Amino acid sequence: MRFPWGDIADLPTVGDRIDTFIDIAKADETPGARLRLARERARSFRREFPSTGTPDSVTTCDLVTLPYPTRFGLFRASLAIAPFLSITNRMLVIRWHDSDGRRRTLLFEPSDFELGRYTPYFDNLSQRTPRVLERQVVREHGTVLAHLERLGIEPDEVDYLMFDHLHTQDLRRWIGATAHQDDLGGTPRAIFPNAKVIVQRDELAAMAELHPLQKPWYQPAAYRDVPAEAFLPIEGSIVLGPGVAVVKTPGHVFGNQSLVVNTSTGIWVSSENVIAAEALTPEHSRLPGVAGWAQRWQQEVVLNANTIETTADQYNSIVLEKTLADRSQADSRFLQFFPSSELTGAWTNPGTRPTFSHGRITHDSSL
Fold this sequence. Notes:
This protein is about 20% helix and about 20% strand. By secondary structure, the protein is of the alpha+beta class. The longest helix is centred in the first third of the chain and has 18 residues. It starts with 15 loop residues before the first strand and ends with a strand.
């Protein structure tokens, strides 16, 4: 599948580039050397980042809880008997004022989960799951639009949409389409008419010609008729606003990126590179098998590994995230890493209840 707008290099971009991380992905470095660089560069940026300020607010909105294979979410570490665990997808609403006084609104992980269920992997899983069981394990908490209405935010106030990566994402209702969509019964107009999608150029390029390892997790047909002007591709890492940064963290997918925010409790990092805060400090995990596996194999993190395209790079990216994040004020054994899909305990999944959960990020600079 080729995108209709031609060369993605011609599309506009956004933000102030962060030079600190540029040399991490040097092709002539070994994975071990890249790990050392990731740790060093993260320490450097962690010292610099607070000087950019803080956003006005960060609000967490629960979207949906759904099943996910244990062998993916906890890689090889879990000894749980449950073949599936539960993860909760959440959206973060971040607001700030630019230097010129203009208010900005970013939606991080605003998943249209109603359309996301047609991702090949989850569609196949749904077809093989009895409806009565599916109703037990899938819980819808609230839609993107319902949450924004509750917060008093109009759709035309949203400036940016961002995902750590585009697995499962169908954006047609959010940014519109340029042609008739049979499954949507027409040509959808953009619900967020002023919003731009911040995405790594690497991921757009990869989606144009997917590798077989990637195909179960993307919906490329959903991008054939989306408008080019809705995208703001970036290369690498940027500061988007005061206390708001996008850091490239390749591995889970080629163009993976993480949200980094500076708040009243310090620095938070969010992505789906891991599904639980304890995956960054597995020595403190009470999940069956996790601490022992990490000690036995000398692994300092536990990957979310539904894709294994570039596993060493994903490991290095998680260490970068781990180095950036501050300690949790609720429990200092764990870091302020907020999984965009967080492990959630459920009676249906014995042995997968997390030792510690953040549940949300809350920040309001006016308080």
